[in-house]
Amino acid sequence: MSESTQQALEQAEREGKYIRKVRSFVKREGRLTKGQAASLEKCWPTMGLEHKDGLLDFTKVFGNDNDVVLEIGFGMGKSLVEMAKNDPNTNFIGIEVHRPGVGACLMDADAQGITNLRVFEHDAVEVLADCIADSSLAKLQLFFPDPWHKKRHHKRRIVQPEFVENLRSKLKIGGVFHMATDWENYAEHMLEVMQSAEKFSNLSATNDYVPRPDSRPLTKFEQRGHRLGHGVWDLMFERVQ
């Protein structure tokens, strides 16, 4: 962001004007391991996607017409790689801003010979707006996003009405928005936002949460949480219009 743009945003904020600034992340810097750096150099030409290239043609990107699943914030990529490996007839796109995570994901995918996975190292809100065609995704996944657990920070949570409305247009009719969180308060917030969102239907039989589907791998983090009695909440909403 340029200095003049930043100053304009700050001035607008002082004047009480609303400026859309919700982002999908807080930038975290980290040191790349040698393996991660090598994987970025080796795999980016074939698996990396650039925001600057604009709207994607999935057929050209993957060489087929298979359904596409997009995941926002894949962390170190273990679960995303496992999903891609388990479902070779589906294409996966991951978005992550933490460079070591991107490197780790590429390293893991390369080691396992995964060919149906592509990744962005960029802000997800901008990728959705500029690179993903309307009505093109079979599923959009958001697993364990930053909960911003302090009440004064809740406005920073990515799941907000505007974000949901923007992502709805990217899903096909029948496409699913799948969320998961280990913060009960955030789960309640997600449910409230989604129940108020137009043109979505809750896939929960009880109109709240769903059991973890087999398609979402159980992480080591979750396994430890279960042993300690911590909960995890999955929500799945289908685009119906």
In a few lines, what is going on in this structure?
The protein is of the alpha/beta class. Helix content is 37%, strand content 18%.
Mind explaining what this structure looks like?
The protein contains nine helices and eight strands. The protein has helices spanning 3-14, 34-47, 58-62, 78-86, 99-111, 124-131, 161-168, 184-196, 220-227, and strands at residues 48-49, 68-72, 91-95, 117-120, 137-143, 171-181, 200-202, 233-239. Helix 7 (161-168) links the parallel strand 5 (137-143) and strand 6. Residues 16-21 have low confidence and may be disordered. Helices cover 37% and strands 18% of the residues. The protein is an alpha/beta fold and 241 residues long. The protein is globular.
Our count of helices gives 9
The total count of strands amounts to 8
- Work out the strand percent: 15-25%
Which structural category do the helix and sheet elements fall into? alpha/beta
Low-confidence stretches: 16-21
Mean pLDDT: 90
Q: Describe the main β-sheet briefly.
A: 8 strands, mixed
As laid out across the biggest beta sheet, the strand order is: 1-4-3-2-5-6-8-7
